[in-house]
Write a structure and sequence with these properties.
Strands 1, 2, 3, 4, 5, 6, 7, 8, 9, 10, 11 and 12 form a twelve-stranded mixed beta sheet that branches. By secondary structure, the chain is α+β, with helices and mostly antiparallel strands. The chain has helices spanning 7-19, 36-41, 72-79, 89-102, 161-173, and strands at residues 2-5, 26-30, 47-57, 60-64, 67-71, 107-113, 119-123, 125-129, 151-156, 182-187, 189-202, 205-226. Helix content is 24%, strand content 42%.
């Protein structure tokens, strides 16, 4: 089955395939603004199996191909609908970034990675990635691989607006590893809990609103893709 469009189209088609058992192959014709998932497939030909992610919140389940996040990125995805129509591609993402800087949350969450003890975190953004980029050009997890059976995580501390402006060029280059305001991690399973309602983005789409608990699990090789 082919997804002709951007990451949101890939998201919807991948959810349909995974709910049906994931036996059919997913083909991607990149026609979107960011096409982050298509970037994962560049340079390879034929059929390939890549990991997918599953998010469970209460009785609801969503899947993702490229990545998900809470905090700044999720609010940026929501703000894409308010960006002027004449802004396209990377310009639209920059427009959403500017809108998000006006108001974005600092979230106090409880985070657990695999079977390690949970810990408290005050975060501007927590991203759980299968791919390397979101927003078209933001290389949030430059070392991520879509077929290693692991998520790569970027945990952003309680940064202010000036610090975000300092971090954006680093993240665009994928040169932010080692910055003390950020943490990088890897895990197969992630649990996120919060006393505050969370907005959750997956593959550029708003997957959940108002949730307070998420279970995120990698599904190794669950998506068969044609490239």
């Amino acid at each position: 089955m082919f997804a002709a469009g951007g990451d949101g189209t890939v998201h919807e088609v991948a959810n349909g395939l995974l709910r049906a058992g994931g036996k059919a192959a997913l083909g991607v014709i990149p026609l979107g603004s960011g096409d982050d998932f298509a970037k994962l497939l560049a340079g390879t030909k034929g059929f390939r199996s890549v990991d997918a992610g599953r998010i469970v919140s209460g009785a609801e389940t969503r899947y993702f191909a490229n990545g998900m996040d809470i905090g700044f990125g999720a609010h940026g995805a929501a703000n894409m609908q308010h960006v002027p129509r004449f802004l396209k591609g990377f310009g639209a993402y920059l427009g959403a970034l500017v809108l998000t800087m006006v108001r974005y949350p600092l979230l106090r969450i409880r985070l657990q990675l695999d079977d390690a003890p949970p810990f408290e975190l005050l975060t501007a953004m927590t991203a759980v990635m299968n791919g390397t980029t979101f927003g078209g050009s933001f290389r949030v997890c430059p070392e991520a691989r879509p077929d290693d059976g692991l998520f790569d995580l970027l945990l952003v501390g309680p940064v202010g607006r000036l610090e975000i402006l300092q971090l954006v060029p680093k993240i665009l280059r994928g040169a932010h590893s080692g910055d003390p305001r950020l943490q990088m991690a890897r895990a197969k399973r992630v649990r996120i809990e919060s006393s505050e309602a969370l907005l959750v983005e997956a593959d550029g789409e708003i997957a959940f609103t108002g949730t307070r608990a998420l279970r995120v699990e990698v599904l190794p090789g669950a998506l068969r893709v044609l490239v």
